[in-house]
Every structure is written in C-alpha cells, then in structure tokens.
Write a structure and sequence with these properties.
The two termini are about 35 Å apart. This protein folds into 2 domains: about 60 residues, Winged helix-like DNA-binding domain superfamily/Winged helix DNA-binding domain (Arc Repressor Mutant, subunit A, Orthogonal Bundle), CATH 1.10.10; about 140 residues, Four Helix Bundle (Hemerythrin (Met), subunit A) (Up-down Bundle), CATH 1.20.120.530. It has 10 helices and 3 strands, in the order αβααββααααααα.
C-alpha cells in the first residue's frame, strides 16, 4: 500500500490512526476481505506500531476488522443481511441521541452541529463524498459526546462504521448525496437550536430514508 500522509494535528496518535484507518476502510480504499498487517499499516500512516495497534483494537470492537492471533488482520466483509436489522436498532438509539443532544449540549457544542450541517450541504453540492464522510463521522462522534449517555454511545459505537461503509459502497447506485446531506443537516440544525422534539423527528426521517436506501441496495 502507498504511504498515507496524515495532517499535522494535536489529536492523540491512536485517535489519528483510528480516523485514518476508519476512513480508508469505510471508503473502500482498503476493501472488504483485505488482509493487512500492523507493521504495514504503521508504515502506511507514518506512525508507530503502538497507536496503530490501539486503532486496530478499536476497529475490531466496531466490527470493521477481525484480528486473528498468529494469522493476521482481516477487513470484514459487508453483511448486507444485517443492515436492515441494524437500522431497526439505530432508529431507536439515534432518536434518543438526537433528543438528548439538543437537551444537554452546551451552546458551543450546539454551534458545532450547525457548522457541520452547513458543511455537509456544501460538500454534497460539490459532490465531495470523502468530505461528506468525514463530516458524517464528526456528526456521529459529536452526537455521542453531546448526548451524555455512555450506554447509547457504546451501542452506536459498534454500528456507525459498518453503517457508513454500507452506505458508501452503494450510494452511487441507489442514493442521492444532496438529499442525504439535507436529512443529516436537518438533525444537526435542530440540535443546534436546542429543539429536542424537532431533532427526534428529523432523526426518524433520516433513518426512514436510510431504510429505503438499504432495501434498494439489498433487493
């Protein structure tokens, strides 16, 4: 694999490694079924083995890689049958997270949601899917932070990456990037306003859209 250059940042090394590898797996630059190594990924990222090892452990907990002792590390396949079952769970948890974020998020955090909403729609207008995926991840992580519910966060942590990868694998055939961005932005803006009921309603609309998209992709 060619070496990947990471932007200069004060983010901890393990977090930097996770963000870089999660993006490469979710956007299929490291395809499902790939066999990778800790050393090879460390060289690719220009980081040491320790932060890469920590990132891989996190990715394993999120279902994106499988670590097989003495055999290597395998990027998991996309399980199309599991997608709709996952969305049933996500609908309930994301509604809770959206409502709680609107209620508990500080003014500064709610302002970040509004910024993400604007940036998502801009990325979609430019057909910049990678920027949109980065913003989607930022939205998901901020949602978990703002909601202040560690149990909901733990449940969503094992679904976000898998759901994002499924969407990216199929969106050019079955999705409308500007529409998807608008639906995400509606949730983010409602949270930004502190509108708990509006955030929950917008979250339901987003999941309904993703369910329809998933049925088209699977069918």
């Amino acid at each position: 694999m060619p070496k990947k250059t990471l932007p200069s940042t004060d983010v901890p090394l393990a977090e930097r490694a996770w963000r870089a590898l999660e993006e490469e797996i979710v956007t299929l630059r490291i395809p499902p079924g790939s066999v990778v190594s800790e050393g090879g990924l460390a060289e690719r990222l220009g980081l040491g083995r320790t932060p890469v090892r920590e990132a891989l452990q996190r990715l394993a907990s999120e279902g994106l890689v499988q670590i097989l002792p003495r055999r290597g590390i395998i990027v998991t396949e996309i399980d199309v049958a599991a997608q709709l079952r996952m969305l049933e769970v996500r609908r309930e948890i994301e509604r809770l997270l959206a409502r709680s974020s609107a209620q508990r998020g500080s003014p500064e955090v709610r302002a970040r949601f509004t910024t993400i909403a604007n940036d998502m729609e801009t990325a979609a207008k430019r057909d910049d899917d990678v920027s949109f995926m980065r913003l989607d991840r930022a939205f998901n992580l901020l949602l978990l932070e703002a909601a202040g519910n560690e149990f909901a966060a733990a449940a969503m942590g094992i679904m976000n990456g898998l759901a994002r990868r499924f969407w990216y694998a199929h969106y050019r055939e079955f999705a409308d990037l500007p529409l998807t961005a608008r639906l995400h932005a509606a949730v983010a803006r409602a949270i930004g306003r502190g509108d708990a009921a509006g955030a929950a309603k917008a979250s339901d609309k987003l999941i309904e859209h993703l369910q329809e998209f998933s049925r088209k992709s699977i069918g």
